[in-house]
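Wed. Picked up where I left off yesterday with Aspergillus nuclease S1. The coffee machine is broken again, so keeping this brief.
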Amino acid sequence: MAPPPHQRALLLFPLIFLLLLLLAPPRADAWGKEGHIMVCKIAEKYLSEKAAAAVQALLPESAGGELSTVCPWADEVRWHYHWSSPLHYANTPQVCNFKYSRDCHNSRGEKGMCVVGAINNYTEQLYSYGQKTSYNLTESLMFLAHFVGDVHQPLHVGYEEDEGGNTIIVHWYRRKTNLHHVWDVSIIDTAIKDFYNRSMDTMVEALKMNLTGGWSDDITHWENCKNKWATCANE
Ligand SMILES: [Zn+2]
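Structure written out below (tokens, as returned):
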């Protein structure tokens, strides 16, 4: 028997809501799942023996021993851990440079509440590995692995005015979307589909082959920068 009209209307609400979600221009704020997984799959290979052992010890059981499986986690908890939402990016006042003291804050002006501050913070927490600590180092690791990915998405350090490209509407092939989403998801999706036979692993292998020694000269600078923080962010 069909439900009475008022119940039918109630049943429609979730459907309408779902449709609205699907029709709304995507407003992602982070590499999509694939981006984060690929960043971590590549990074995993470069861990020192000591770091790899610590990662194995800290990973939750659900990760099955693979760091990459937990790398999208920070996006999944950003609405539950409301405070963590501003930690995925940093905004600059329409200038192409980043100043920690000027730019690393949340909308309430709390200092350090940006992606660079988060990387510093979770790196510092992880230094307490092996000692008595009140931090949840499993979460610290999952946050750090995610935010290092985010900070390398060019529009995660962007202009405040256009919300890191979220308000710039563009077409990716025939699909209407926004510039931030193109970087987060569209480029990666299209590349996997068109160049790597729909296989993320093939793309990861290809990216690994393309890693060169460029920037390797910077390592000494990173290791010895003035503030000795993880990110070497100035000021
Ligand atoms: Zn993110």
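Quick read: Strands lie at 90-92, 157-159, 169-172, 175-178.
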